[in-house]
Automatic annotation (TrEMBL), chains A, B:
Gene3D superfamilies: Homeodomain-like, Tetracycline Repressor, domain 2. It comes from Streptomyces broussonetiae. Residues 31-50 bind DNA. The lineage of its organism: Bacteria, Bacillati, Actinomycetota, Actinomycetes, Kitasatosporales. Residues 8-68 form the HTH tetR-type domain. It holds the Pfam family TetR_C_24. Keywords: DNA-binding, Transcription, Transcription regulation. This is TetR family transcriptional regulator.
């Protein structure tokens, strides 16, 4: 079986196995031995694909970060009233989180012990900052309430979105994704109370 | 110094040290040795106060759970329209979380490896269920929007509130607490968009 799997191994499948192990054991608690066992290939086969455990981490969190930053380049995030751009970004963040669930989960658990982790935290802060700027612009337009401080509102919205990794499990039919994204947008922008 | 601290030790101060260590190292990763070192008292002195590490965990998560369940017995949580009772509960959850920060943080990290952890998870589920029932009653009254499914809305609201443990640090003047509680209530019930 090991031989069979070795033949079909690609950097992509190795990454997917590594992310799963990182999420289960924690990045610090994962050794190359663990990865080799989980992947069913030898350590030297892993080194054929990547130079280190940290390179796997970098590739994995890059995938999550690229997914998030791509949102900001989308037309609906760049053109229009800030409040509508913000709504687009919030919806797409939920979609990216669900679509890249293990990668975003790993990104959210990064602690800052290695250079790669510190880089990932810095990129996360950049992203948070970009979203906070959008919220600030929407507040300046009077489209977002002024009685909730921008940094606090950003933290609460990110808190709600990021908490989805704790309970969301992909539905093979993908039917739940739209419902979750809609619900987040409804709560964040309109609240639960009927008007 | 060890002797001096030993004299003033109470079950209360021991609990406070234990919770801090559990939060830093994880409950599983904490030994009686770690607790003894952090508290500056011998292991046998600890056993004078408690029978096991698990008893300390039970006392700590009980403190958080008691704080949360007490909310449900408050007059404003029992009397009035469900939507207003729900608003009271949400505000008070935020206050209890900030007031009992290390205890609630520990409660939210419980994994279910021991009997005490499974008991704590069960009590958390009970609490979540009680809040979901309130949300359902408010929706039945037409006071809460019907287009967000109750279980999903409950998860998102708990997600937002629980995420506060990730960044909130007590302000000696306590001035930030009111602002955070107000912000959560505003976002959850009215949303960010100006109307």
């Amino acid at each position: 079986m090991t031989t069979a799997r070795r033949d079909t191994y690609t950097p992509e499948t190795l990454l997917s196995v590594a992310v799963q192990v990182f999420n289960e054991r924690g990045y610090d608690g994962t050794s190359m031995e663990h990865l080799s066992k989980a992947a069913g290939i030898s350590k030297s086969s892993i080194y054929h694909h990547v130079s280190s455990k940290e390179e796997l981490l970098r590739r994995a969190v890059s995938r999550a970060l690229d997914g998030l930053f791509t949102i900001l380049d989308e037309e609906h995030a760049r053109v229009g009233r800030p409040v509508d751009r913000l709504e687009h970004v919030v919806r797409r963040m939920v979609e990216v989180l669900m679509g890249e669930l293990p990668y975003v989960t790993l990104l959210l658990r990064v602690r800052g012990n290695t250079e790669t982790e510190r880089w990932a935290l810095e990129r996360r802060r950049d992203f948070d900052h970009r979203v906070a700027e959008l919220l600030k612009a929407a507040a300046a337009d009077g489209d977002v309430r002024g009685d909730v401080e921008v940094r606090l509102a950003t933290r609460l919205v990110f808190g709600m979105i990021n908490s989805i990794v704790e309970w969301y499990r992909p539905d093979p039919r993908g039917s739940g994704e739209r419902e979750v994204a809609d619900a987040v947008v409804q709560v964040v922008f309109s609240g639960l109370r009927s008007t």
